[in-house]
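=== RUN LOG ===
request id: a7f3
mode: sequence -> structure
chains: 1
length: 254
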Amino acid sequence: MGLFSRRKTRQAPQVEGADAPDTADPELGDDDAGSAAQGADRAAVAAAPARGEHLEAGPYDEADAPEGDYLDLGALRVPVIDGMELRMEVDQRSGAVTGANLVLGGSSLQVQAFAAPKSRGLWEDVRTSLRDSVVTQGGTAETRPGVFGPELITRLPIKRTDGRTGYRPARFLGIDGPRWFVRAILTGKALGDPEQARRFETLVSRLVVVRGTEAMAPQELIPLHLPGERPGLSQIGAAPLDPLARGPEITEVG
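=== RESULT ===
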């Protein structure tokens, strides 16, 4: 297990990864783009591949979780993996822990768990909101089939040091569970490296969600806490982050 730190998050979107060339603006109008996005979403649902052999059956509900070596973060239990760096995100105003970043080999996976209603999942609605937000900000968002179901692949515009506009990509995963929803954002080298991507997919499939029995509003963040003391895990200076005021949405880590 590697370095433990806390990082600052602002309320502007950012995702990590290599800059892409400056590319074209969408040519479709708003109505046409919305219809095309909905069609792509339905196609991604229909074309979702079967789970690969590298995946476990999770993310697990606490009641169904197998035994293993986990970091207890409150809402989430994270499997311990050699070489993994854990970075916790903390709200500057309240001091509450609001997210965990799992870093391996130059890539990062941000994971959060949210309360969900008994009657239905949240990922379809959250995915639509994320897609609309990215497009509104001048980026691109594509729904595609993935090992956990439909995924969202985004590219957000950034201003480069030379003054030109570049793009940073991210891969959004969403998993609906019993009265909870897990959102994971993968950024970095794993976006272009299938072997690294499989490592993170396996990590997601081994997560354990601790929902608790208390009443919570849909999309309310299930409370996280810092991990306890353990060998090989050290703390460095804290920097705060803004909370997800409206539930799952894109945040900036910087």
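=== NOTES ===
The chain is about 15% helix and 35% strand.
The two ends are 22 Å apart (CA to CA).
=== END ===
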